[in-house]
């Protein structure tokens, strides 16, 4: 199975092939396009920042701050506060486009909501904070990195610089001949990969801060309402599921069973050479097949073994039906909500089915445990691994079922195995 490409620069930095990939060039492009924007913003901030330093220095020396300086700082601060929400529109619009260089994940686009919103909404002031970050702290980081690059280039070029008539000072030593400079040049060449990683880290941090400030979070109250709405939908679904199961189990299934028996008795009473024998046999077989299908439907809604044996017993029954040895470890010391039980059962059922069909495993293991108010379900096998949700709907459907119950599904399946499916389900709402 081919490894998926890293989704963003921060992830690419953790992979061994970073230096040979295109990500260092993307980090460089992001840095280069940052310089004019951050430079222009830093100049604007220095117009007010330099007088602030003068005022602070005067206070430290015990001298009074002159009135014109105070007026200038006051007017400058007010102008920045008034203009920053407007200036940040252009800055963050460009940043949203540039961010795709190092982090292609989508960022919400800017939407004009009126002039008053630029001064009253949290999202607007987060954009202002990004503008100050880009014009204040980012230039300092790039300045330090530039000094390191110049120092490294000096080390690399020191053998050629030593040919000039003037003395050359490398770090703290004086170099007179190219031979003396060779060790420094070697060190400089060895430091080039570290500087490449350093630029990647600098760009990744800048991009992460930009994403954190510009990807406006959903309103907390709306988010809580969504969660409550999802919980209500799940409860409604569970109630309807139980009603359908009860109606089928108590109504349609017994009547179909009775019909099958009546057809069977009728077959015994009808002679084999009778014209009605063949159609009656077909009807009897169809009724029996329909009864099996209906039983499977009921089993799919909520397995009877889950009702009779509980989660641990039902999972052990699944393990006993598998064609490979399956070990079950269950540590459940308290009753579980019905939704949690049924979700966990179907997770184990689908996972074991995938193991038998696709993994080539010789054994599997199922663990059920309560930890921190959550039911943890783990299904592992010794197969060849390489499970990929993108290649089928089974794992995706499991993840959707788990998410509907408020949990999460984690998958570890490297090529060559082993495979581990871990599901965490909250046992309270």
TrEMBL record:
Tagged with keyword Transmembrane: yes
Assigned GO CC terms: membrane
Alphabetized GO MF terms: ATP binding; phosphorelay sensor kinase activity; protein dimerization activity
InterPro entries linked to this entry: HATPase_C_sf, HATPase_dom, Put_sensor_dom, Sensor_HK_TwoCompSys, Sig_transdc_His_kin_sub3_dim/P
Ranges of residues in domain Histidine kinase/HSP90-like ATPase: 339-429
SUPFAM superfamilies for this protein: ATPase domain of HSP90 chaperone/DNA topoisomerase II/histidine kinase
Chain segments annotated as transmembrane: 27-49, 69-91, 140-161, 181-205
Chemical reaction(s) catalysed: ATP + protein L-histidine = ADP + protein N-phospho-L-histidine
Domain of life: Bacteria
Catalytic activity, EC: 2.7.13.3
A Pfam family this chain is assigned to: Sensor
Keywords carried by this UniProt record: ATP-binding, Kinase, Membrane, Nucleotide-binding, Phosphoprotein, Transferase, Transmembrane, Transmembrane helix, Two-component regulatory system
Protein name (database record): histidine kinase
Organism listed in the record: Micromonospora peucetia
Source taxonomy: Bacteria, Bacillati, Actinomycetota, Actinomycetes, Micromonosporales
